[in-house]
Amino acid sequence: MKGSGAKTGYLLRANLKQNRIKHLVWIAILVGLFASAATKFNVLFGTQTDINAIVETLKTPAMVSLFGEFSAMKPYTTANVFASEMLVFMGMFMVFMNISLAISNTRAEEDSGLLEMVRSRTVGRLAPTYATVFEILLINGLMGLLYVVSLIAADLNGATMWGDILMGVSIASIGIMFGFISLLIAQLANNSRSANFMSYGLYGFFYIVRMMTDVSDPKWTWLSPVGWIQKTAIYTDDHWLPVVMMLGFGVICLAMAIKIVGTRDIGSGVLSTRNGHGKAGKLLSSPLGLVLSIERNSIVGWIFGGFILGAAYGSVFSTIGDIIGSNPTYRKILGVTQINAANRELILNFLNMLALFFVAIAAISGILIIFRLKTDDKKGYLEILHSKSISKTRLALSYFSVGILVSVVVFAITLAGAFFVGNSTLAKPIAMKYFWETMLGFLPAVLFFVGIAIFLTGALPKLTNVLWVYLAASILVKMFGPLLNLSDDVANISPLGWVGKVPTEKLDVTLTFLLFAAFLILTIIGIVGYNKRDLE
């Protein structure tokens, strides 16, 4: 390319070399999970009786809110079940991968000053954006191809070649769409932190719209780009229109991003920043106050978004028991009292499943703040603080304490949103003790992940990305382990496997104390490590 796109190929090769480890990790986790699931589904759901049983479960409001509408028509096949269970979740992680890639390659490099140095050479103004676009297309195209190969090799009962191709293309398309959306948001925001927050926030909004419309009236799911992937009706009608819509919407966002890049000054954003006060308030007189001030908007966003997400899931509590209550055979055999007890059991199991998501959300909200100590150090933002009479321990504790507090509050608020909104929809509300059992059962798991973040930030800052892999693997194994007949030993790679089925099972007090003790030990080691290591 010449002119504005000069040196695009050179930057693309540099980006691929720089991001090769991240790409390999994403491919290993996502394609590995997808392929292993595909190869086992014929065994897990090999008979029509097994298939019909799982389909009835997938049609319940609780499962629809998680996996999306089950739109396949009889006779149901193993391929129908696989597509229904995998599309939304694979799409979710593809979105996360592409948001991270798009912003780290553009806005994050701009914030660090690297982009200014690159563009001072014989590099076109649009070359960094073009290079990122090609990288997004390459990585998503490769993963989409590997998904198709996995499906062909698995040879699912009821699968077709066109269905296999459509599924791989659909998952890749939603990733490309959000990669291009994030490139646009990177131009609108004033820094990478805001760009990440806006990108994930937009995805969260679309996800909630998808969830609520799927449960209430799936026709309205077309309003959410996240829900378009479900409308492909893979292995049933094989609709390609949603793929065209995803790619078309992504290209529109990309065109807008390129237009803005061509005119925007480095370091600025389309959305203007609000001017601060003429004089600093008392809150800025300490490192703790500084961190709270900087993270104020993101903290409010996490808390508000967590409550909305929890409330949205809680709104389906009243319909979870329909699979039992609406079945005349169960009514005759169990009677009213037993049906109510069975409904409560279903709700508690659903709450246990939701708690896994809430742990991840809460942990991420705190980990991002804790990891900012590393990035702020690396960018030189903290040099002025280090020149003052502020100890490294006090500075580290400012970041760590805010991260811990945010994780705890976000988990509590999200769980409360699900529990209390859900209870308000029930004719017979579940007892308050189940809220506290879930809270006490899963909160130590949140703290454990946060403790690992503190340990890595303080003692091993070069390995902080390992935590994202560990957290993602923990959630995926716990969610899909039962479907893949994985042993409990595999699920026990993280505290999510140790907690068990709380609140349907009793809280393990000993485990709670052990996790809390591990969190304290990791925190202490992290603080000591930060004090002993040299600054970035």
Please, could you describe this protein's structure?
43% of the residues are buried. The longest helix is centred in the middle third of the chain and has 52 residues, at 328-379. The chain contains 23 helices and no strands. It has helices at 8-18, 20-44, 48-58, 61-67, 78-105, 107-112, 114-119, 127-154, 161-188, 192-216, 241-261, 287-294, 296-314, 317-320, 322-325, 328-379, 383-386, 392-424, 433-459, 465-480, 488-491, 495-499, 509-532. Helix 16 (328-379) packs antiparallel against helix 20 (465-480). With 536 residues, it is an all-alpha fold. The model is unreliable at 326-336 (pLDDT under 50). The radius of gyration is 24 Å and the shape is globular.
SS-based structural class?
A: mainly alpha
Helicity range: over 70%
Strand content: under 5%
Question: How many strands?
Answer: 0
First-residue to last-residue Cα separation: 37 Å
* Mean model confidence by pLDDT: 83
Q: Which shape, going by the Cα principal axes? A: globular
* Gyration radius, in Å: 24 Å
**Given the structure, what is the number of helices?**
23
- Topology pattern, helix = H, strand = E: HHHHHHHHHHHHHHHHHHHHHHH
Q: The biggest beta sheet, please?
A: none
The unreliable regions are 326-336
In short:
This protein has 536 residues and is mainly alpha-helical. It has helices at 8-18, 20-44, 48-58, 61-67, 78-105, 107-112, 114-119, 127-154, 161-188, 192-216, 241-261, 287-294, 296-314, 317-320, 322-325, 328-379, 383-386, 392-424, 433-459, 465-480, 488-491, 495-499, 509-532.
